[in-house]
Each structure stands twice: as C-alpha cells, then as structure tokens.
Design a protein that fits this description.
Elements: H1 3-21, E1 34-43, E2 47-52, E3 57-73, E4 84-91, E5 97-104, E6 115-118, E7 126-138, E8 141-148, E9 151-157, E10 163-168, E11 179-186, E12 192-200
Parallel strand pairs: 3-12, 5-9, 5-10
Antiparallel strand pairs: 1-2, 1-11, 2-3, 3-10, 4-5, 4-7, 6-7, 7-8, 8-9, 11-12
Length: 208
C-alpha cells in the first residue's frame, strides 16, 4: 500500500473516530463505550492489552478493520474564532469552566458529536464540542466562548493546558509502550472490542 493511500485511510479513520468511536457523544448514549486511558503492553493485531491509568490490565479485541489515529500537539494559535474544538473542562470555585485539554478537530470532522455533556477525564469534568465564537484575552490565559446547537459555554484556557489535534496514523503506531485513549464496546460476555485507537505521537499522552 502506498503512503498516499495510508494517509487517505488515516484521514478517513480519524474522521470516523471523531464521528463514532471516540465516545464524544452529543448526548449520553444508552450504552456508552468503555473509555480506556493508558499504555499498550501487548498487541498482536487482534488483541491489545492496555495498562490503564487506574492500575488495571485490560484486554481489548480489535475489529478486523481497526485503525490507529495519532494525537499530536498543535499551537494555541489554532484555537481561533471559527475553529471546531473539543474541550474537557472542570468548573472552578468562581463558577467558570477551566479547560483541562483542548482538541482542535480537523476541518473534515467539524460538527462531530456537538454539545456539552459529562466526561470522565476527572470527577465532575465536562466535555464541550463546539465552534469557537470568540477569543478574549484574560489575566491568566484566554477565555473562549463556545457555541453549539443547544447553547453556549465560556471556558478559560490557562497557559500550559495541552492543545492537540488528530493526524493520520497507521497500525504500526499502536505499539508496545504507546500512550493511548480509546472507547471500546462491551459485548454480552463482558469482552471489549475497539475499532479505533488514539495514539499519542512520540510518547505523548492523549490528554482527553
């Protein structure tokens, strides 16, 4: 397979992941995927073993057409008016949502799972997938106004917050030692199956 075909496949994979596999749903689904954050300790193309952040070891079956999508750093300048972003946040003592991470979606994934809903990055954290309406300077960073179809949120982005985007990857990126995030479907027998794995490039921990 040529590199161009791999790149095209990677773009399709990351858009498909954003639309369906990342569990960034616009409303809580009836049976939400099991989100796993951790490190690959074994993988053979059919099963990946993940050492999770909670200290457990979990085996995940890989769908026949599974794909890897890279999570790569991007610049704060990409978080601009008109960008479509996904921001995990936590409400501060002053009532303002403070960003825990910022994901800038590729243009092809604009509108993916739009909304504001509970997230499990930290206890009581939220996820907002929306368009940046305004960017305002603040004493401790920037304040973004995000608009989605059912409302709007103001979220403060302080210096040092991870800012990432998706990039095409291939299965070789999902290797032992890679830091990953994935949403796996649970079968009736309790087994987990995933079709997409988000892999941090060059040792990056996917911050979402």
């Amino acid at each position: 397979m040529t590199r161009s075909r791999l790149m095209a496949g990677g773009v399709a994979a990351l858009v498909a992941f954003a639309m369906a596999g990342s569990a960034l749903s616009q409303s809580p689904p009836p049976s939400p995927p099991t989100r796993l954050r951790g490190t690959i300790t074994a993988i053979d193309g059919k099963t990946a073993t993940i050492a999770t952040r909670e200290g457990t070891s979990v085996d995940v079956k890989l769908a026949e057409n599974w794909a890897a999508v890279l999570v790569v750093p991007t610049a704060l300048s990409e978080v601009k008016q008109g960008a479509f972003v996904g921001i995990a946040s936590l409400k501060g003592p002053d009532g303002v949502q403070n960003a825990l991470e910022v994901l800038v979606f590729p243009e092809a994934a604009r509108g993916s799972n739009e909304g504001h809903y509970p997230w499990d990055l930290q206890p009581e954290s939220m996820m907002t997938n929306a368009t940046v309406a305004t960017v305002a300077a603040a004493g401790d960073g920037q304040t973004l106004t995000l608009k989605y179809k059912d409302g709007a949120q103001d979220i403060r982005v302080k210096p040092g917050i991870p800012i990432v985007t998706f990039a095409p990857g291939d299965r070789a990126d999902a290797k032992v030692g890679a830091k990953v995030f994935l949403g796996a479907a649970k079968g009736a027998d309790g087994s987990l199956t995933a079709g997409r794995i988000l892999v941090g490039k060059d040792g990056l921990t996917p911050p979402m």
